[in-house]
Amino acid sequence: MNQITRRDFVKTTAAGASLFAAPAILSAINQNEKLNLAFIGVGGRGGRNLKTMTSYGKVPVNVVDLCDVDERHLARQKEEFPNAKTYKDFRRLYDARGSRIDAVVVSTPEHTHAYATMPALLQGKHVYCEKPLTHNVVEARAVTEAAAKANVATQMGTQIHGLPNYHRVVELIQSGAIGKVTEAHVWVSRAWGRQSAEDAKTNKDIVHVMERPEVGMTPPEYVDWNLWLGPAQERPFHEDYFPGPKWYRWWEFGNGTMSDLGSHWNDLPYWALELDAPKTIEAFGPDPHPEIAPASMTAMYEYGPRKGRMGNLPALKLGWYQGDHKPKIWRDKGIPQWNNGVLFIGEKGMLLSDYSKYLLLPEDKFKDFTPPEKFIPDSPGQHQEWLEACVNGTPTASPFSYAGPLTEANHLGNVAFRAGKKIVWDAKNMKIPNAPEAERFLGRTPREGWSLKG
Asked: If you count Cβ atoms within 10 Å of the first and of the last residue's Cβ in the chain, which end, N or C, has fewer?
């Protein structure tokens, strides 16, 4: 595959435009018509996406198709949208109704994201896909390239990206408030992964999962287990996988905390520091398990020099920490003890942020600091941005041209962890020259009947 990088798509124009750039949208619909939407996955997050998008009055929408492997979710949403046709298998939705659909919203578990998204792109439909964009690196590259060719409105569902706090942090970093940044650290307290019974006693978010179940269970009558598996390799139903978020922990279906929260938390340094593909990645934690992602781990990324809003930018080290792992400066109490955060370390100071607030450090040094003028446009919200892009051709904040490379970088943290060694990443050729045996973790072979070719 050809290299797809953020710089291939995000062209620096006006100051604000470079941060919200997307390919020019050529297939916007007639603004006097309703936008025909298909929703794939309509329970949980999918149900919330459905409610939010159909409540946005500025873009009239028509829900033409609903799809879910869970009959309960379909029945509930069918009551709200009685004229919509229902499906359990999204492949049949595309076969039967592709010509009637303008845009598709994908809210399935991550192991089916790419398979639900690719047919829409190949048919020239606008797509909103929940995070993480794909299950692995190979799928992320394929979806990124397909989106570039389709030239449609795309958005990955990272709602925090559209909130004011992230905007202000990006403006501060890219305006040089703390000087050029050479080090950044991201930590999250969530520990979705391989957990012991003892761990589960002290953390309500933990499910005791140590090994793959030896004996299957009868699936609930309302769930089509075969379709839920989708491209994943066949295995018997078990309550350790379903319902969510249990499936996040299993390599076959998810990638643990990294791919889930990495989409939100690594998004901020990736955006603010104008990052692209990492040069090397090394991970630390427990011995890799063949079936289950780790609860706690660290991944260290090295990025090379690059150009950005501030001109030439230096090489950078970015650390990711999850569960019990924390950066040394946090453990040494050199910064406030936030449970989750992003720390930028620059030549002139530090900036600490979470979803809703930030601090310039040391505080006494910045007590008279005047923030830069705002240059990132306010967002109506990620859902609304995407709907407007579908009808007006306006840009979105997290198009696949940006979200794809971000997703690749997150997945590479897990690749390095599973490889058990520092890896060198050849982004252009999608190779790991120093550890070719680790390349098996970049993608997967789908089950028969499932293809990314639509």
From this structure: N
- Is residue 360 within 8 A of residue 177, CB to CB? The reply is yes
Q: Which residue, chain included where needed, has tokens 């919203």?
A: 105
Give the DSSP letter string of 27-80.
-PPPTTSPEEEEEE--STHHHHHHHHHHT-TTS-EEEEEEE-SBHHHHHHHHHH
Question: How many Cα neighbours within 13 Å face the side chain of 421?
Answer: 11
Q: What is the mean pLDDT of residues 86-110?
A: 90
Length of the chain: 454
Distance separating the N- and C-terminal Cα atoms of the chain: 18
Residue with tokens 């190949």: 122
Q: Token pair for residue 255? A: 């990638």
Residue-wise pLDDT for 3-43, tens only, equals 333 333 333 222 333 333 344 444 555 555 799 999 999 99
Say how far residue 384 (Cα) sits from the centre of its chain: 18
Give the predicted TM-score (pTM) of the model. 0.91
Q: How many CA atoms lie within 13 A of 378 on its CB side?
A: 1
* CA distance to 119, 412, 424, 433, per residue, from 439 (Å): 26, 10, 11, 9
Q: Return the number of other C-beta atoms located less than 10 Å from residue 354's C-beta.
A: 18
Tokens (6 digits) for 199: 């761990």
Per-residue pLDDT band for 392 (boundaries 50, 70, 90) equals: very high
Q: Which tokens belong to 290?
A: 């063949």
Greatest distance between any 2 Cα atoms in the chain? 64
Q: What is the pLDDT of residues 102-130, one digit of tens each?
A: 999 999 999 999 999 999 999 999 999 99
Q: Is the pLDDT of residue 223 over 90?
A: yes
Position 1 pLDDT exceeds 60: no
Looking at the domain that runs over 6-159+379-396, which CATH code has it been given?
Answer: 3.40.50.720
Give the whole-angstrom CA distance, residue 206 versus residue 430: 34
pLDDT tens profile 130-147: 999 999 999 999 999 999
How many Cβ atoms are within 10 Å of 175's Cβ, its own excluded? 15
Q: Tell me the C-alpha distance between 206 and 203, whole Å.
A: 6
161 neighbors 271 (Cβ within 8 angstroms): yes
The domain ranges of the chain are 6-159+379-396, 164-377+411-438
The SS3 of residue 249 is helix
CATH number 3.30.300.130 is the correct assignment for the domain at 164-377+411-438? no
